[in-house]
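Lab meeting, item 3. Inverse folding demo.
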């Protein structure tokens, strides 16, 4: 997952925890809710100024915003594979 998607998802989580709509947070940061939606969904790029504005509005300084976003990504559960879905002793074709 790329950095803008990781940051965007974390911003969404903080916004929802603060019980703010996209429109409310956008107004607090001086951006449009459409741009905020793009940020949260990883379609738009963050600038330092936008990160600072979001951090202030969400009461989360930029260093915590960035480290928190990436800390959550590394603690996500690792998917496991159910071995029952694979055929055992399946011959492999080799050319």
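The presenter then showed the designed sequence:
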């Amino acid at each position: 997952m790329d950095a803008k998607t990781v940051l965007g998802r974390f911003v969404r989580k903080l916004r929802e925890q603060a019980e703010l709509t996209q429109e409310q947070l956008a107004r607090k940061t001086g951006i449009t809710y459409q741009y905020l939606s793009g940020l949260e969904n990883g379609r738009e790029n963050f600038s330092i100024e936008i990160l600072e504005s979001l951090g202030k509005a969400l009461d989360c300084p930029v260093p915590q915003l960035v480290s928190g976003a990436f800390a959550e990504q590394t603690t996500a559960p690792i998917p496991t594979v159910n071995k029952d879905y694979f055929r055992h002793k399946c011959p492999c074709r080799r050319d």
